Amino acid sequence: MKAIVCENFAPIQELKLLDVESPVAKPGEVVVNVKAAGVNYPDALVVQGLYQVKPPLPFVPGFEFAGVVDSFGDGVDQFPAGTRVLGVHPGYGAYAEQIAVPAMCLMPIPDAVSFTDAANLACAHGTAHHALKQRAQLKAGETLLVLGAAGGTGIAAVQIGKAMGAKVIAACSSEEKLAVAKQNGADVLINYASHDLRKALKGVTAGKGVDVVYDPVGGDAFDQCCRSMARNGRLLVVGFASGRIPQLPVNLALVKEFSVAGVFWGNFIENEPEVYAQNVKEMFTWFLEEKIKVVTDAVFALEQAPEALQRLMDRQVAGKLVLEI
């Protein structure tokens, strides 16, 4: 079968499309014919050796996918051949024509949901959902600030924040990106490239501060958010797309009485699979009710994976990217 292979932690352009052995299902495993694989910022980091986790080399990147069950090993009876499934595999391997995963990593896809939408729903919306529901315990009527609100996980946070009843403030670096956030339900728009984010938040919240901040950006925006938190606020650390990992001024957390919570979605699904399954069911329900939607910015072929990943690193994406296989 064909697969994208990372032979060394190196620039994205060194990824190769190679012929590799097709997987065979071991006991408890399922082999899936991959139809679509989500392209995520962690994928771009891990192939360069810049992510928290460094898998053994060589490896096939990609951890979210959707497809059709091809075969299964002993002990698997819940996914017959031909079943449409969504999968998340912490061990990577989705940038390929086939992938073998433990059956517990799969969930059936409703017939009304396409492979592309299912693949792109898992990570971005899954991260935002876990962050806002389990980590922040967001309540209806609270204010939610979403940084990087036109990116894949930012759009998801805007949509899910609205579905949970929050007033959503979207912050982006351009008017074009803010327009995307508005289309996805944002109530208030702030261009933090042309406006002082701290002053804007003070005005929007009448001096109270923000109840929940969803931050996949880091850098200077994080620094300003620490000074813009409401009492009992929750600042969610999701990622560092700006390239700078900020330092927390703990004196502000003390004086303002806000909390900082880390959001590592991969750790969540590995340690709380039952809760994750409940989250996915709720997301599919919201999707079918049109409370949330997948915004796919561009579709690439498998061999174009390096181009897609570089586009992510260059921050030239509004929504999600996907490989259709």
In short:
The chain has helices spanning 41-46, 115-135, 152-163, 175-183, 197-204, 219-226, 250-256, 265-271, 273-288, 305-313, and strands spanning 2-5, 16-19, 29-39, 64-72, 84-88, 98-102, 106-108, 143-147, 167-172, 188-191, 210-215, 229-237, 259-262, 296-301, 320-324. By secondary structure, it is α/β, with parallel strands linked by helices.
Model description:
The protein is an alpha/beta fold. The protein folds into two domains: 2-109 and 295-324, Quinone Oxidoreductase, Chain A, domain 1, CATH 3.90.180.10; 125-265, Rossmann fold (3-Layer(aba) Sandwich), CATH 3.40.50. The protein contains ten helices and 15 strands. The strands form three sheets. Strands 3, 4, 5, 6, 7, 14 and 15 form a seven-stranded mixed beta sheet that branches. Strand 9 (167-172), helix 4 and strand 10 (188-191) form a beta-alpha-beta unit. Helix 2 crosses helix 3 (152-163), helix 2 (115-135) packs across helix 9 (273-288) and helix 8 (265-271) packs across helix 9 (273-288). The longest helix has 21 residues, at 115-135. The chain is globular, with a radius of gyration of 20 Å. The protein starts with a strand and ends with a strand. The mean pLDDT is 94. One of its GO terms (molecular function) is zinc ion binding. It comes from Halioxenophilus aromaticivorans. InterPro entries: ADH-like_C, ADH-like_N, ER, GroES-like_sf, NAD(P)-bd_dom_sf, Quin_OxRdtase/zeta-crystal_CS, Zn-ADH-like_protein. Pfam families: ADH_N, ADH_zinc_N. Residues 10-323 form the Enoyl reductase (ER) domain.
